[in-house]
Amino acid sequence: MKLTPRRRRRLFRVAGYVVFALVIVGVAAAADWGRLSDAFLRSDVARSMFPEAITVALRNTIAYTLLAFAFGLTMGLVLALMRLSTILPYRWFATAYIELFRGLPSLLVLFMVGYGVPLAFPDREIPGGVYGSVTVGLGLTAAAYMAETLRAGIQAVPKGQLEAARTLGMSHPRAMISIVLPQAFRIVIPPLTNEIILLTKDTSLVYVLGVTSSTIELTKFAGDALNQRVNPTPLVVAGLLYLVITLPLSQVVRGLERRAARER
Amino acid sequence: MSTIEIDGLHKSFGKLEVLRGIDLSVEPGEVVCVIGPSGSGKSTLLRCVNLLEEPTSGTIRVAGAEVTDPDVDIDAVRRGIGMVFQQFNLFGHLTVRENVTIAQRRVLKRGKAEANRIASENLDRVGLSDKADSYPAQLSGGQQQRVAIARALAMDPRLMLFDEPTSALDPELVGEVLAVMRGLAADGMTMLVVTHEMAFAREVASRVVFMDAGVIVEQGPPAQVFGRPREERTREFLHRVLEPTRVSEAELRD
Q1: Chain CA centroid to CA A87, Å
Q2: Cβ contacts of B79 on chain A, cutoff 8 Å
Q3: A174 occurs within a structural domain
Q4: Of residues A115 and B102, which shows the higher confidence score?
Q5: ipTM of the assembly?
Q6: How far is A94 from chain B (nearest CA, A)?
Q7: Count of domains in chain A?
Q8: pLDDT score for A212
Q9: Which tens digits make up the pLDDT trace of B154-211?
Q10: Contact B106/A178, CB-based, under 8 Å?
Q11: What is the pLDDT of residues A137-171, one digit of tens each?
Q12: Has keyword Metal-binding (chain B) (predicted)?
């Protein structure tokens, strides 16, 4: 039988499926399922984490994320407008800020806000306790990323939109607020949602600020439970709870991107 | 008082001099069509009138207000000048009705009911009252351009500028936009129109201005400019535009 190009393609395809199935079966056979489930899926350990896993840890994770996001978005918008300003020093400042905070690890910034600043100014403190420090500590970095995203969004709005608004007698600020920014925000919703997902994961750094039982977030909560029960099941529970936040968000991004593709 | 008075207008983009000394006036109720090859500076001239482009030198007055005065309240001047763009430039995040009301509300500070009433009148005038709740993306190009005209008219302009309003349209949609413009002209609106639609210029214009290489080569009533052009450059342009199938290969060599 001759190997025609069509047969050949089919053969390679079948081989691909077979290799995949063999690897899966091989791994499944080699794994010690009893031990795995004893370590990672102990239902009594998992049960002991509730309801605090949700009422405290998940709640705080979401709160830290939203606070840092709100701070970062506000500051990012100001930075984006500064970057597009006709006033040169504004552009310099915004560019320097963005380059600086994109280049620093989030953890270092968090240390700086949580410990560095209080040491330098012992008589002042960031309002809101840990919540305040997290808002600023994670928000400063997020602002740098969001500023670039927002700038790109503003520049993606066709120039004719601003011209049409100005032609109707709107001032430049009015045209930005009523016409350009609403369209820019629509464009940047998918990348901004990605930013929330990244922030959600960055809240796992918050434990370095020394959280208490009421300000604890998911990762630290799971770590404590792991130490206490000497069993890694809490890590699996925490992982699943993170996915409860991030998977719907990814789904939202995908939906929005599909819609944007259709409208084009 | 002339609606537009342009004196010694020059405009350069870097080293490129696009307008080299334009003198032009438009009287109230006139429909002036500006024709000429691409790159001749027609659109730049139009965009200087409401200061979308800043002239390099020269003065422009619109209804007595000097647009080129550095102390002019340009937003106030622009309120009286409607402009229609080649690319429509409707606000994509707003419905048709909101497109027509937003500047009335934000700029003229009209109440919601009044703005909506005026929007309805103007949408009716361009034949699109049934599309008030649609978004621009749901409309054809011709419909979008008619909304853009209604949006400009809702501001009660004393002058309308048209920058190649039909150039981005599919051929079968050109007629509906020209019909609206013809209606406007008949109602006595002062219009400055940059266009490639020679039939429209011939039929509707009170005056035709032919531009080439940044200057006005000749101007006059359409019958004269189209029928008995004085300048060789005008004849050459009209020949190429009006009889594109008669352009011989020999003409391409010079």
Answers
A1: 32
A2: 168-169
A3: yes
A4: B102
A5: 0.92
A6: 28
A7: 1
A8: 82
A9: 999 999 999 999 999 999 999 999 999 999 999 999 999 999 999 999 999 999 999 9
A10: yes
A11: 999 999 999 999 999 999 999 999 999 999 999 99
A12: no
* CATH code, A175: 1.10.3720.10
The pTM of the full predicted model, rounded to 2 decimals, is 0.84
A156 to chain B, closest Cα gap in Å:
13
- Nearest-CA residue of chain A relative to B75? A169
CA angle B192, B193, B195 (to 5 degrees): 160
How far apart CA B62 and CA B3 sit, in angstroms, is: 5
Return d(Cα B11, Cα A259) in angstroms, integer: 43
Give mean pLDDT, residues B68-94: 94
The 3-state DSSP class for residue B34 equals: strand
B78 to chain A: nearest residue by CA? A169
**Scanning every residue of chain A, which has its alpha carbon at the shortest distance from the alpha carbon of B135?**
A263
Does A255 fall in a domain? yes
**3-class SS of residue B81:** strand
Residues in chain A closer than 8 A to B87 (CB atoms): 158, 160
**Per-residue pLDDT at A264 exceeds 50:** no
Q: How far apart are CA A111 and CA A254, in angstroms?
A: 34
**Residue at A189 is within a domain:** yes
Is residue A14 in some structural domain?
A: no
The dihedrals phi and psi of B66, each to the nearest 5 degrees, come to: -85, 110
Q: Which residues of A touch B89 (CB under 8 A)?
A: 158, 160-161, 163-164
Query: Which residues of chain A make contact with B135, given a CB cutoff of 8 A?
Result: none
| Residue in the block written with tokens 């430049």 | A172
Question: pLDDT value at position A128?
Answer: 80
Residue in A closest to B103 by C-alpha: A168
